[in-house]
Design goal:
mainly alpha, 0% strand, 4 helices
């Protein structure tokens, strides 16, 4: 787990926040069992809904095309420019 995640866990422990299981991460909902979905994603007490707009969808499509499209030079430039702005504390170890 990354340093940021570890700091968050430490802060929760200091506040005596308890949890029954260790926190887990998933890349997608397809990795979760039905009972895990029922307790988290499907439970209104534990989920956050965010309204997305057409602008969000358009921006997402542009980024998706940049990162997954056939044109390599723009993707390479994006990676090179972003490399200098990265916060290494946010990278999982």
């Amino acid at each position: 787990c990354g340093a940021s995640f570890q700091r968050t866990l430490a802060q929760l422990k200091k506040r005596n926040v308890r949890w029954k299981d260790a926190p887990q991460r998933y890349k997608g909902l397809g990795e979760m069992d039905a009972d895990q979905l029922a307790e988290t994603t499907m439970d209104p007490r534990h989920r956050t809904l965010r309204r997305l707009t057409v602008d969000d969808a358009e921006a997402s499509a542009e980024v998706f095309e940049l990162l997954m499209g056939n044109e390599v030079p723009p993707r390479k430039e994006f990676i090179i420019q972003g490399a200098y702005e990265i916060d290494t504390e946010l990278i999982d170890a």
